[in-house]
Amino acid sequence: MRCDHAPGHPPRFTRRGLLAAAAALPAVALLPGCSDGRRRTTGGRITLRFQSPAWQQDSLKANKQLVAEWNRQHPDVQVQYVQGSWTTVHDQLLTSFEGGEAPDIIHDASDDLADFAYGGDLADLTALLPPRLKRDIPQRSWETGTFDGRIHGVPFLQEPRVLIANRAKLDRSGVRTPTPEHPWTWQEFEEAARRLTRGSTYGVAWPLKEPVSATLNLALSTGGQIFHRHRDGKVEVRFDAVDQVVPRTLHDQVNVDRSASRTTLGMGGSDTLPGFFAGRYAMVPLGFSYRQQIAQQAPEGFDWTVLPAPKGTALDQGVSPQTLSIAEDCPYKEEAMAFIDFLLSPPNMVRLALGDWLLPTGQEALKDPALRAARYDWATGTALAGSLSSAPAQSVRGYPEWKDKIATPGLQEYYSGAIGLDALRKRLVEDGNLVLARYQR
Questions:
Q1: CA gap 111, 417 in Å, rounded
Q2: Phi/psi of residue 122, nearest 5 degrees
Q3: What is the pLDDT of residues 61-83, one digit of tens each?
Q4: What percentage of the chain's residues is helix, strand, coil (to nearest 5)?
Q5: Between the CA of residue 147 and those of 112, 327, 439, what are the distances in Å?
Q6: Are the C-beta atoms of residues 205 and 261 closer than 8 Å to each other?
Q7: Do residues 215 and 380 make contact, with C-beta atoms less than 8 angstroms apart?
Q8: Are the beta carbons of 4 and 18 closer than 8 angstroms?
Q9: Rounded to an integer, what distance in angstroms lies between the CA atom of residue 102 and that of residue 153?
């Protein structure tokens, strides 16, 4: 449910938003309220509710096992696991905050936190953070969960975007195989895609059903920002030359070089895998966690490898890590933070990372041999951890509306060839700044 209103004004809900809220109600309406009296039993035991949208089998297993271990070790502070969903997490949380029924500990993603942080729904964790946890996670990661100088989310799992390639086709093409130490430039990537395009095989398949985060995050490698914050705190959308390198490359691969498949533009990442296995695409840019699906679903003997995303002036790319937050209404914030500290101890962070096939943000966890193995190219992902930084839109109020109403349709039309670069710039900048202005009055 999107909140289409300026700060300080009553929200206007769309019919779609109200329906989404109604759909989310059964999952949260049964949860106990937030008051102190309803959280503490007659025996003095505290119950905290931990809502997680984890869905993959290994991830679910790791989360539930850790909750059970905490409960065995802390009989006076019990944690109740509540199943959420990534597809409805924003609407579900919005409904629960509005109704005073929010979970105590919230598993979400950093790019979903801005409205809740600025709206006072999430607790300021800055003074609650244990020194060990604060030291273990680097500052560039803390920035993803920081809003107006206050930490509202603990970033703990992150996902670089990589190229998954058919090793046999890569070897036959004769192109240089990139490594994290020597990645392709965007120009080399374009040339490699052209050389890998043979017969019925496209060099690359871009699954861009959700094109905004991929475009913005990869644009960091060329110095792109899109969003620029002024000294007064207000944000302006720009679409400068450095912002245009990545979208122009994608557009030209589809419409000029014909080295990228047009039919995959409307697909999600999983939708491209059957064609990848069948040899229709030599490379697919995907999130690092897709290795799990590929390992489970690839035909016997299918040889694949993980390559770093291309670089511009740097190998940098933006990420929106998974986060853990505490509801402002939670009466037991110190106990909730103690559970977060337990969940994110280095050994437990490794378990969560392996369960989700993602990278931990914690520096100690990143040293674990299991995350540096050659199998499934874990080592390639771990080598990229130092180049991951806060996604450009991380703390921008109004970003969800800009993304849904302006950027998504604009980029989809541009990548398909329906509009040109000038028309895209006009939409992103002129129309986009009108949207953001309503959140910055």
A1: 29
A2: -110, 140
A3: 999 999 999 999 999 999 999 99
A4: 50, 15, 35
A5: 12, 15, 15
A6: yes
A7: no
A8: no
A9: 15
